[in-house]
Predict the structure of Methylated-DNA-[protein]-cysteine S-methyltransferase.
Amino acid sequence: MTRAALDTPLGPVWVEAQGASITASGWGEAGRAPDDPLLITALAQLSAYFGGTAAGFDLPLAHGRTGLQAAVLAALGDIPFGETRTYGDLSKILGAPAQAIGQACGANPLPILIPCHRVLSATGLGGFSAPGGVEAKVWLLRHEGAAGLLI
């Protein structure tokens, strides 16, 4: 397993590769000179996303989750750039309680790459795992053009 990080407007973001897949991402420091071609590609795509020239990612992701959590992660991946859904929306689609949807979002092993930041509560923003919590979520939503939802 190898890991590398990129500086972003939200602070350093790292990605981790194992074999031919990206298996995790998160917040914080990691090596800055990856020699893994997959990590180089992942960091380039993240840089393009944060730079405003890409709206998504084309990476082999392997989150290793099963059951409801895997279904939630798949549903998150289906939310288009610049759009949001509520925990309740996903609850109806997946036939699971909104609280379970929220827990699965909170356990997302690939934040940003699997866009859990696009899920809101019925009465507010909900949570977010990044340093700065909901402020980082607001930044991402504004970056994606979903800021009109926040006004």
